[in-house]
Design a protein that fits this description.
Largest sheet: 7 strands, parallel
Number of helices: 26
Strand order of the largest sheet: 11-12-10-13-14-9-15
Strand content: 15-25%
Structural class: alpha/beta
CATH architecture of one domain: 3-Layer(aba) Sandwich
Radius of gyration: 31 Å
CATH superfamily of one domain: P-loop containing nucleotide triphosphate hydrolases
Mean pLDDT: 83
Shape: globular
Distance between the termini: 42 Å
CATH topology of one domain: Rossmann fold
Low-confidence stretches: 501-521, 658-670, 721-726
Length: about 725
């Protein structure tokens, strides 16, 4: 029986392999297995006589098994298998750990091709856990045939401790031998125009290539498949949103929005005007707005969101803004009330709703929200609770979208009838990521910054190379305070001595550090250690020092931030709880310790907390990372430019899209297989145009059944639901 992509693995391979693949990779069908592409290909290299093998290099020999022995491993269970092979000119040892079963096939007298990295042990050459391919017992190939075997690429698959790459290769080969036709998601005209392989050829060549050219052709075709299917899913979602009906929320002459604009004490920037106009039009469309607004820290996203809220309020509608922390929610309330002024604030009654409020405060706020009295509601996850209801929720604003999963966003949107949605992010998103991850959203960008910003200077303090700079950092902080300014000191942990040994731990405040292989196991500095050190410092110790982190009670966090904003605190030692939204115009200096433990975008966000008023900003990135390391490159990249959009591209290149996309979005968005959003930018753009063209002519894909089939296989119902919620 020939297999199809939908054949269950239990039918294709049997019960045991099916269970192993399900447990390790979540696979259930032949299509799932065949979409598990090789992560790389090993080329065995030229045939080399054993007596000429170069130490430390990959080499391949044709040889005969001379002897086989095994012995138990010393420190763990299992056995070490030692095989001696020879080619008439020299001998070489093969060592296999915990693979005693190989003794059955590596019998003396068997010949084959053996490939591995040349090492030495006790003066003898060896391959450790090598690849090999044995010749049939009844014949040995000539040198030409052996040479051809050597040149055939070996696929290396993403594997686990329980399932080795050779095991996956064997199962895939078994499936390919019985695989029938493979539906081709790419229309024939497009396949011809782009010179792509058929789907069946591409699947065969990617797993069993004979040449490098076959690998390149197969991967190129499969990248097109992935891009087209993903972009079709996103384009369909845009279509689905536009099939929904929404309440139109037009602004009216002499209304709240016009009165607000007339009272503004400054001119809006050109980008604020453009994006505001786009949102204004969205709010009067037949379908719900679904727009992402990205802009640098301090570019005016809050102003843009507030104007949208005012337009919604003119028809009696309510707006809910959800923020990731209580500190940020409280600050949004204060800044919006300040912008609205005494003339408009009482009419709109901006209301705060957080989980840390007292029961009485929360009941009072919830009543205002449920009655419709509060037209602007700002809160944290408390907005998502079943007890929070709205009279007429017309607009949902999600601040710092990367802090929320799609389920949380949908929970809030479900409290209204097809409300408009505005998603804000201060983390600039590269164009290709926007197309790939947020392709179902309309994207607006605010690039121009408001006038009057004094700017920020950023310097790297490499204290491992220049220890004296560590003392100079604190002298410089004291100098800024002497000028009447204030200082942030940011740490990646609350307590370095108690922090998790692996980098990347989160203290519950969002203060997660970037995890990079090879970095120190712990942060050098935590809030606790820095505060103690600064209290003992001869100059800084005389200043007013306070600490702030996510484990403090919310009222204490809010009090500390207000004290800092009033100028009652000189130096604030904090985790990244101050990363977003904290606005203190008098803060001139940001010291970031263990800066190499943060990502590029996070460092840029943190830096944006200073230089916000007329006071010039100074950012000191303290690091012990070695020069030339990836971690040091991130820090130096941030010091090299203030352009967040340029840094977003650098971040993508340094970290890879897997990290940048993260797993808070739906699986379809974070599980790119062969597609790479930097390298394949042009391909993604072309695929998006093709997807839109196909759907324009065939919205239900009735004339493109193969594409519809690939779509249903690649984008699960769960992922479709996730797309519809974003």
């Amino acid at each position: 029986m020939s297999l199809t992509l939908d054949t269950p693995l239990i039918v294709a391979l049997g019960d045991k392999p099916a269970k192993e693949l399900s447990r390790a990779f979540g696979m259930s069908t032949v299509g799932d297995l065949l979409a598990h592409y090789p992560r790389r290909y090993a080329l065995r290299g030229e045939l080399t006589p054993i007596d000429g093998l170069p130490l430390g290099e990959l080499a391949t020999v044709v040889a005969e098994v001379m002897s086989v022995s095994s012995r138990p491993m010393r420190n763990r269970s299992g056995r070490i298998l030692e095989v001696v092979i020879g080619d008439g000119k020299g001998q070489l040892a093969l060592t296999f750990f915990g693979q005693a079963w190989r003794e059955k096939e590596l019998r003396p007298g068997r010949r084959g091709v053996f490939s591995g990295k040349v090492g030495a042990f006790r003066g003898k050459l060896q391959f450790s856990n090598p690849d090999y391919e044995l010749f049939e017992d009844d014949r040995s190939p000539g040198l030409a045939e052996a040479d051809e075997m050597v040149r055939t690429p070996i696929p290396i698959y993403p594997a686990t401790a329980a399932i080795a790459t050779w095991k996956i290769q064997r199962w895939i080969s078994e499936v390919l031998d019985r695989l029938g036709d493979v539906p081709d998601p790419v229309p024939e005209e497009l396949r011809s125009r782009e010179a792509l392989l058929t789907a069946r050829e591409a699947v065969g060549w990617v797993h069993r290539p004979q040449t490098r050219a076959q690998i390149d052709a197969a991967r190129g075709t499969l990248r097109w498949h992935e891009a087209l299917v993903l972009q079709t899913a996103l384009a369909q979602q845009r279509q689905f949103v536009r099939m929904m009906s929404a309440t139109k929320r037009p602004a009216r002459a002499g209304g709240l929005l016009e009165r607000f604009d007339a009272a503004l004490p400054f001119e809006r920037t050109p980008d604020q005007i453009t994006v505001g106009d786009q949102i204004g039009l969205d709010l009067t469309a037949e379908w719900p707005m679904n727009r992402l607004v990205q802009g640098e820290v301090g570019s005016g996203k809050t102003l843009v969101a507030l104007r949208a809220m005012l337009q919604v309020a003119e028809s009696g509608g309510q707006s809910a803004l959800i923020a990731p922390t209580e500190v940020l929610a409280a600050q949004h309330l204060r800044s919006m009330a300040r912008m609205l002024g005494p003339a408009l604030a009482p009419e709109l009654m901006p209301t705060l709703l957080t989980g840390q409020m007292t029961a009485a405060e929360r009941r009072k706020a919830a009543l205002r929200v449920a009655s419709g009295q509060a037209r602007i509601v700002i809160g944290t996850h408390a907005l998502l609770s079943a007890g929070t209801t709205f009279a007429d929720l017309g607009l949902v604003v999600v601040d710092e979208q990367h802090r929320f999963g799609v389920e949380q966003r949908e929970t809030l949107r479900a409290k209204g009838t097809s409300p408009h949605a505005l998603v804000l992010t201060a983390t600039p998103i590269p164009r290709t990521v926007a197309m790939t991850v947020f392709g179902d959203l309309d994207v607006s960008t605010i690039r121009t910054m408001p006038a009057g910003r004094a700017g920020i200077q950023t310097f790297v303090a490499p204290v491992a190379e220049k220890p004296a700079w560590f003392g100079r950092v604190w002298d410089r902080a004291a100098e800024e305070v002497a000028k009447g300014h204030q200082v942030f000191v940011v740490c990646s942990a609350i307590d370095a001595e108690k922090s998790a040994p692996a980098p990347g731990a989160d203290d519950g405040t969002g203060a997660g550090a970037a995890s990079v292989e090879g970095e120190a196991a712990r942060p050098h500095w935590g809030v606790v250690q820095v505060a103690e050190m600064l209290q003992r410092h001869p100059t800084v110790g005389r200043l007013r020092i306070a600490t702030l982190h996510g484990k403090l009670p919310v009222d204490e966090k809010d009090r500390i931030m207000q004290d800092f904003a009033r100028g009652d605190i000189d130096v604030l030692v904090a985790t990244t709880v101050i990363e977003v939204g904290v606005d203190v115009a008098n803060a001139s200096t940001m010291v970031i310790l263990d800066a190499d433990r943060f990502g590029v975008s996070q460092l840029h966000q943190l830096r944006g907390r200073v230089g916000r008023g007329g006071v010039p900003g100074l950012c000191l990135l303290v690091t012990e990372a070695e020069q030339g390391s990836v971690a040091r490159s991130r820090v130096e990249a941030v010091a090299s430019t203030l352009d967040g959009f340029a840094l977003a591209e650098i971040d993508l290149e340094l970290r890879g899209e897997g990290d940048v996309l993260g797993d808070a979005q739906s699986g379809v968005r974070s599980s790119l297989r062969l597609l790479r959003v930097v390298k394949d930018a042009d391909l993604i753009a072309r695929a998006r145009a093709e997807a839109e063209r196909i759907l324009e002519r065939d919205p239900m894909l009735d004339r493109h059944p193969e594409l519809a089939d690939a779509l249903s296989r690649r984008v699960t119902q769960e992922e479709r639901a996730a797309l519809s919620k974003s």
